[in-house]
Amino acid sequence: MPTKQVFLLGCVLSLFATTTFAADWLQFRGSDNSSVAASAKVPVDFTAEKNVAWKSPLVGKGVSGPIVVGKKVFVTASSGPVVQDRLHVLCFDTDSGKQLWHRQFWATGRCFHHPTSANAAPTPASDGERVFAFFSSNDLICLDLDGNLQWYRGLGYDFPKAGNDVGMSSSPVVAGGAVVVQIENQGDSFAAGLDTLTGETLWRETRKASANWASPALLRDATGKEVVLLQSPGVLTAHEPRSGKQVWKYDAQCSIIPSATAAQDRVFLPAKGLTLLEATATTTSPTVAWESNRLAPGNSSPVIVGDHVYILSKAGVLACGDCKTGEILWQQRLAGTFWATPVVAGEHLYCINQDGKCFAVKLGAEKPEDPPTSELGEQVLGSPAVSSDGLFIRTGQNLWKIAAK
């Protein structure tokens, strides 16, 4: 099919909303990058036996989080005796935990990564009809929901200098008929948008050659218009997802692990601790509402619920801040080191440390009592997913569904 026809087909299809369920968790931090499932009902306490709907074993290794589309949950993994050059995409039934299919591929790019990480570090994404599995080797695989290969892009093969020995972990986002990847490193550093239907490169922008593990985020306005936020060590830029056109930028020394979170016309940016920007999808120049060095996130991204922002520090201290002023309302010390971004289910914030201990913290302006704690006894590095009545957690060995029985 000629390129012009492919482009027109993509534009026509983008006019029609993909059928998705309200309970879908389509990408890292949820369908809208908020980490919030306000109507979900998940137990606040569980063990390896209590309130476990099912547990399914996983192959290889991975620190990516699961995503949920309809009645299917997807997760990636990587394996190999020397380097993790074998790429896995797995699909499970959300109700039973039965493995529905398992696809395997060979990596084309650099597979080096930190011993605590894996080639399967980025969380996959979906548009409701396809799954986009991205890996540290910069291989991007598109499958339909039944596991049939739609296209494959070896971006590490195309750009062999893109990567570092610690590994990449930026997760893709899907918007406007494009899957956007952020591949920032000390070598060939860039961001790109690829057509969701064909895998063709729609745009590619050179970024500063510097290590960065932050993921793209989405900013939507009241009309549904959206831009992709690209957070780099020295700047935050907003782009039209399909054309890559830069809409606005904000110069700042941004964090390189926790990612920006957008809520309504506000962007909570991990910079100078935490910076609140007032901006929309059509803003030409964002406005700084406040900055707070006391609300500095550690490895986890900010979570916004109503007028409150929740931050987990590197020391494992959870802080609740006022979104209007940046004032800290309360702080609570939790135990351990946290890599997973907390998720909201109903009235609780679920914070899971790397040892698999979960703290279910009651939301609100008043400091809660000591939260209920749960332990799975397995390492957790990837951010969980929430869908309807279930909390989906990826550990080092298994995929778990936590749900009331």
Helix-strand blueprint:
Blueprint: H1 3-14, E1 36-37, E2 52-57, E3 67-69, E4 72-79, E5 86-93, E6 99-106, E7 125-126, E8 130-134, E9 139-144, E10 149-154, H2 155-158, E11 173-175, E12 178-183, E13 190-195, E14 201-206, E15 217-220, E16 226-232, E17 235-239, E18 246-251, E19 261-263, E20 266-269, E21 274-278, E22 287-292, E23 303-305, E24 308-312, E25 317-322, E26 328-333, E27 343-345, E28 348-352, E29 357-362, E30 373-375, E31 385-387, E32 390-394, E33 398-402
Parallel strand pairs: 1-27
Antiparallel strand pairs: 2-33, 3-4, 4-5, 5-6, 7-8, 8-9, 9-10, 11-12, 12-13, 13-14, 15-16, 16-17, 17-18, 19-20, 20-21, 21-22, 23-24, 24-25, 25-26, 27-28, 28-29, 29-30, 31-32, 32-33
Which architecture of the domain at 53-211 does the CATH hierarchy give at level 2?
Answer: Beta Barrel
The quaternary organization reads as: single chain
Strand order of the biggest β-sheet:
1-27-28-29-30
Mean pLDDT figure: 92
Keywords: Signal
Signal peptide: 1-22
Pfam families: PQQ_2
Domain Pyrrolo-quinoline quinone repeat: 49-187, 287-360
Q: What would you note in describing this structure?
A:
This protein is mostly beta strands and 405 residues long. It has a domain at 53-211: Beta Barrel (Lipocalin), CATH 2.40.128. The protein has helices at residues 3-14, 155-158; strands spanning 36-37, 52-57, 67-69, 72-79, 86-93, 99-106, 125-126, 130-134, 139-144, 149-154, 173-175, 178-183, 190-195, 201-206, 217-220, 226-232, 235-239, 246-251, 261-263, 266-269, 274-278, 287-292, 303-305, 308-312, 317-322, 328-333, 343-345, 348-352, 357-362, 373-375, 385-387, 390-394, 398-402. The longest helix is centred in the N-terminal third of the chain and has 12 residues, at 3-14. The chain is globular. Residues 1-20 have low confidence and may be disordered.
